[in-house]
Specification:
With 396 residues, the chain is an alpha/beta fold. The protein has two domains: 96 residues, Membrane-bound Lytic Murein Transglycosylase D, Chain A; 216 residues, Zn peptidases (Aminopeptidase, 3-Layer(aba) Sandwich), CATH 3.40.630.10. The chain has an eight-stranded mixed sheet with strand order 5-6-8-7-9-12-10-11, sandwiched between helices. Strands 1-2 form a two-stranded antiparallel ribbon. A hairpin with a 5-residue loop joins β5 and β6. α6 packs across α14 and α12 runs antiparallel to α14. The chain is elongated and about 80 Å long. 46% of the residues are buried. InterPro entries: ENP1_M14_CPD, Peptidase_M14.
Length: 396
């Protein structure tokens, strides 16, 4: 919610008035001094939404009593009306704390839903940062979201594979729950999220393969200028449920220079709905975007969500650091998943991260069944993944 500052108002005052941690206000209003706020400055208050109603009542105090809110909250949000003599024509602005999920429609989670939900979250939680990590083949922006002020930078991503779009829904539900807990100063599973916000900066790319996800969910029309090509690769079928690749038929999680030659020798040698690693490593803009993002940051750890199998892969060519195993055990403890150190599979994002930076990297296979997993599993998958995503904030 946005308000306009009055004389002598400060961020510290707003923190107390709206019961919002000062650090969240400072993050939402970077560049403002907490104790010096220019008059007439637009200020964002995290965790609140504004509602408008016509009021035949007589005073703001009457409304405050009826709505059980502080009169000072009404005064700061209704500076253009006379507080002691309201007109029937006045539009009264009611500030209300958001205490429930904003993201409620997680089924068939397309790139359009992702964009919509990011906008919703940013409106209520402006201390979350949103920027572009790059673009897809079709020119869609790959969003990166950031939460936290800590010096420990960790990364989480989903939907490298098109028919694993449920991973994006899981991530976005988690972000919503995390943000909700921060502004309402509530724990998740008994844990103080404010402490994690201060110690960890979480980077999130909720959907890497936007073009492919839309193709799986919406069909050939989502392919735009690539309709002929994807139909040819898919044997003229408009059922793209088995499509893992990006829109040009390249498997983005087989695109990294980490034993890529080994993988290429046993995988298809031309574009396919799945498994084709490309003609060379890092030919696709989505893979390049993730490489560039990771190279630019100082991630202590990366975690990539995939489906399915309820397993956590944590090693690569014995290059993983000594603490990788302990972190994998914690991921497994909080999820019930099985740890797997080595797998006869190469050229993945976490493989490259371990090889390049010698830091812990994880591929987490959510749920069980056949991709794309039935959305009926969403709640159980989310609860399993929630422990992992929280652990990603607190493990050292």
């Amino acid at each position: 919610m946005k308000i306009v500052s009055r004389p002598n108002d400060t961020l510290t005052y707003y923190s107390k008035l709206f019961d919002v941690p000062l650090i969240l206000l400072e993050q939402a209003n970077q560049g403002f001094d907490a104790e010096v706020l220019p008059r007439g400055q637009t200020v964002q208050i995290p965790g609140y939404a504004l509602f408008f109603e016509s009021s035949p009542r007589h005073t703001l105090k009457t409304i405050a009593i009826e709505r059980n809110i502080l009169i000072d909250q009404l005064l700061v949000t209704n500076q253009l009306v006379s507080p002691d003599e309201l007109s029937h024509y006045d539009q009264i602005i009611i500030p209300e704390p958001v205490n429930d999920f904003i993201i409620t429609d997680c089924d068939h989670y397309t790139s359009a839903k992702l964009e919509r939900d990011i906008q919703k979250l940013m409106a209520v939680y402006p201390f979350m940062r949103s920027q572009s990590a790059g673009s897809t083949v079709m020119g869609k922006t790959i969003p990166e979201l950031g939460i936290g002020t800590g010096e420990t930078h960790v990364h989480l991503n989903g939907s490298f594979h098109a028919n694993e779009w449920i991973t994006t829904a899981v991530i976005m539900r988690f972000l919503n729950e995390y943000l909700l807990a921060l502004t309402n100063q509530l724990p998740i599973r008994g844990m103080n999220l404010h402490a994690y916000f201060l110690q960890t900066h979480l980077s999130v790319v909720p959907m890497v393969n936007l073009d492919g996800v839309d193709l799986v969910i919406e069909g050939v029309e989502a392919a735009g200028a690539y309709q002929t090509e994807v139909l040819t690769l898919n044997n003229q079928s408009n059922d793209f449920a088995n499509w893992k690749a990006n829109i040009t038929g390249v498997d983005l999680n087989n695109q990294y220079p980490a034993c890529w030659d080994t993988e290429a020798k046993r995988k298809p040698d031309s574009p396919q709905p799945r498994d084709y690693p490309g003609s060379h490593p890092l030919t696709e803009p989505e893979a390049l975007a993730m490489q560039a993002l990771t190279a630019k940051r100082d991630f202590k750890r990366v975690t990539a969500l995939h489906t399915q199998g309820k397993e956590i892969y944590w090693g690569f060519a014995d290059l993983e650091p000594s603490d990788a195993k302990a972190i994998a055990r914690e991921y497994c403890r909080v999820s019930g998943y099985r740890p797997v150190q080595n797998l006869d599979s190469y050229a993945g994002f976490k493989d490259w991260f371990i090889q390049e930076f010698r830091r812990p990297g994880y591929t987490v296979e959510l749920g069980a069944g056949v991709n794309p997993l039935s959305f009926e599993q969403f709640e159980s998958i989310y609860q399993e993944a929630l422990g992992i995503m929280l652990a990603n904030l607190y493990v050292s």
